[in-house]
Write a structure and sequence with these properties.
The chain has helices at about 10-25, 30-40, 50-55. It is an all-alpha fold. It has a domain at about 1-55.
């Protein structure tokens, strides 16, 4: 594995990193690795279920119900 040294980081950034690491019960170094992976790592595609779960829960089921009483439109290609 490679090593990375980052210099001249603002103290408030270092403190925020330490606080986030403490909240996750991990070291600041591990938190730093995770942030780098998240920011620069290969993004994976969402599964179909994950994509569905990102959709907002708006409207009611009745809003999307079909109206079977409507007459069908004529087929525009029927006479071709």
């Amino acid at each position: 594995m490679s090593q990375l040294v980052v210099r001249n980081i603002e103290p408030e950034i270092v403190e925020a990193l330490k606080q986030r690491a403490a909240a996750a019960n991990i070291s600041a170094e591990e938190q730093h690795r995770r942030l780098l992976r998240e920011a620069l790592g290969k993004t994976r595609k969402l599964t179909f279920m994950e994509a569905l779960m990102t959709m907002p829960n708006v409207g009611r089921d009745e809003d999307f119900a079909r109206d079977y009483d409507q007459t069908m439109r004529p087929d525009p290609f029927a006479d071709l």
